[in-house]
What we know:
Blueprint: H1 5-18, H2 20-37, E1 45-46, H3 58-65, E2 75-82, H4 90-104, E3 109-117, E4 128-135, H5 142-159, E5 166-169, H6 172-183, H7 186-206, H8 210-236, E6 241-242, H9 243-273, H10 278-305, H11 313-316, H12 319-344, H13 353-362, H14 374-381, H15 384-391, H16 395-411, E7 418-419, H17 432-443, E8 452-457, H18 469-478, H19 499-509, H20 521-529, H21 535-542, E9 553-558, H22 568-572, H23 574-588, E10 592-596, H24 598-632, H25 637-663, E11 669-670, H26 672-699, H27 705-737, H28 744-777
Parallel strand pairs: 1-6, 7-11
Antiparallel strand pairs: 2-4, 2-5, 3-4, 8-9, 8-10
Helix pairs in contact: 1-10, 1-12, 2-8, 2-12, 4-5, 5-6, 7-8, 7-27, 8-9, 8-12, 9-10, 9-12, 9-26, 9-27, 10-12, 10-24, 10-26, 15-27, 16-25, 16-28, 18-23, 24-25, 24-26, 25-26, 25-28, 26-27, 26-28, 27-28
Amino acid sequence: MPVHVDDIFRAIGRFSVKFRWLVLIAWAAAAVAISMMLPSLASVTQGNNTAFLPSSAPSAQAQILAKPFGNTNLVPVPVIAAVPSGSLTARDQQWVSGLARDLARVPTVVKVNETGVSAPAHGVAGQAAQIQVMSNTPQGNQPGLKTLVDNVRSAITRAGPPPGMQVHAAGQAAIEVDQQKQSGNTGNQLQYASFVFILILLIIIFRALLAPLVTVLPPLIAASMIAGPIVGELGHHGLKVSSLAQLLMIVLVLGAGTDYGLFLVFRVREHIHQGEAPREAIVNAMTKVGESITFSALTVIAALLSLLFATFQIYSTLGVPLAIGVGVALLAGLTLLPALLAIFGSWAFFPSRTWRVARKMAKGQPVPVRQPGPLQRLGQRFSWGAIAARILKRPATALTIGVLVFGALSAAVTAYESGGFGGSLTAPSGSDSAAAANLQNKYFPTSSANPTTLVYRLSAPAWQDPSAIPAATEQISRSPLFKGATGPLTPVGGTGFTPAEYTKLHALLGPAAVLPPAPPAPVAVKLAAAHLPAAAYEMYRATSQFVSPDGTTIQFMTSLTAGDPTTTAAMNAVPAVRTEATSVASALHATDSGVNGEAPAFYDISSISNSDLMHVIPIAIIVIGVLLALVMRSLVAPLYLIASVAISYFAALGLAVLVFLKIGHDGGITFILPFLLFIFLLALGEDYNILVMTRIREEARHRPLREAVVRAVGVTGSTVTAAGLVLAGSFAVLAIIGGKGSGGSMIREVGIGLAAGILMDTFVVRTVLVPCTAVLLGRWNWWPSRLGTDAGGSVAADADSLGLAETAADGFPAIPPDPPRRRRR
């Protein structure tokens, strides 16, 4: 005898209810053991997005070209030392060299360079000195970066600067640390605010105290204590995990896991209102929605695993961690959640009407039917059942209007332009990094903030024939694309060396990278004999960051006229920058060239991201279409369900284009928004499609199709609405709180775009467009299945004929009782 799918989930429900304490203990033990024995997810995340670029990307090739300098994957922390007037004395310079040795002993620091003193063009000659500290701390590891900056500052304090000298840690890492100290940990604020929002929303929805906690606890355990460490362990075995994956795992697992919990808890509440005891209601609810929850999770997992076909590794490696998280959340929703509901019983819904109904039925007392008051009658008129009854009187009209509106929004996608990350870092007023930024901008302007480097490979060492370097430096400095340049002959700006002086210094001193901080006595004699100033030693040592040890690779450091490299303007300038860099290569007779920095990396990421989006979506659609066909037992329904997701996605992206590009006049939309919209709208859309359509199929077994659709929308509308509000609200919180910090414009775009898309999908697509299509197709919904033949019944003038007018005492529409079964024709 074949086993029906409902029997499988009934068995799971019975096991979880019967052995509820065993299930709880097993999950608690697994959570504690896994979180203690496996590494944390944060320990393996990589914040440098360029590490995920394919080797064929121009930025990746430029990084390979710059490997002789060894700085491409290191975090720089410039340290600036300056005196208020005059030049640094010999004693001051000796102290700076001692500080460099102390900084080399700081944990995670792998390289320290004294890059020289300031040029006469920037104050008095030698008024400031700069030390470049390089650390191998992962750029996405915020606790590690904070520890690094704190250790650098502690080393400065212990060294004891001479009286009057200012010494500060500069750069992006130092600014980020000071921003966190000023405004608090944005991530903690976001997590706390999101949790409070979800909890308050679920308390309002359930009118209960325990049900919200019971619903959120399983996905919370799944995300933070089980899935995170499992992915962390895989990261130690070669899986690349981006900081984006870490963020999305929390949001997606909590959001999707809460959705699955809502599917079950709402159905349990429905069965309790139909007269079932709480534990019996849990088993029966699992029997009815277990398949919907499972296939909903499988569609999300399928969508995530389709990212394996992406070229950009930040996307192709995104699918596995998130799929693991959703899979663990599914297991928790099917086992831990029923066990918790069985443990608390009716008290999970205290003090709502559901709890009162369950208590009276347990005592054998009749449950009085209260007459609805004014507020209840108002709620009845605007309940999903009543709205569906009115809309489905003219389904073709409603569907046509919805498609036209969404189509008009989708047309705006043609104006889509990718943008940078935005939100250039600004040091908080009065902070140590703000003082450092002022000194750096004053004395070392070309190396401040976030430089872009032009890298060249020469056919012979630079010191053999440096005659072409001054012309190249002049061409870069005069280009309208750049703001000045430092390079092999101008390591600290200013006039620098002549080619003859540079060749002479190399002949006297050898490679700059191996020179000690202080010149030995014989060197001073050699410099004097060659008629070179003593300061030439420090300047020559500074050329080590512009000339490779073998002399065949050189680089120029510059700033972009377009602005901060993280902005859209800088990203859009990359093609012209690369063209100019190629022109300079001709002047240098270089055999190869490249452009390094955030702007070119973001340009390549954006280009590859747009390309990936075009070929990942069809793969995901095919895989999800197969899953929908299996769960719907139909070849027709999956077609319009996938179409509903597509039109929802393009409409949401079109709305983002109108808001950010046309109204907000931004230069572009952050490239990650289309991908995140695709992932989350596909996940939510198919989750809710499966919930609504499986309920329609269930009701259509013993009702005319139109009545089945009205009833299904009436009893699932609150579930879909609650789930959509939970996730949309979470992204709204992200936009508000995360938008205040570094990269605020990018975070606001992501938060607002996703929140708007989810709300459109929740309130229009799942509850209007899909039901209208189902009614218009009639029996063809289930082809080639014979299920749900439309009996031709019409929708009543109001919802009373379907029992949808009854309103519960807690202000929410009560679950209508099943009418007598109709004999199927």
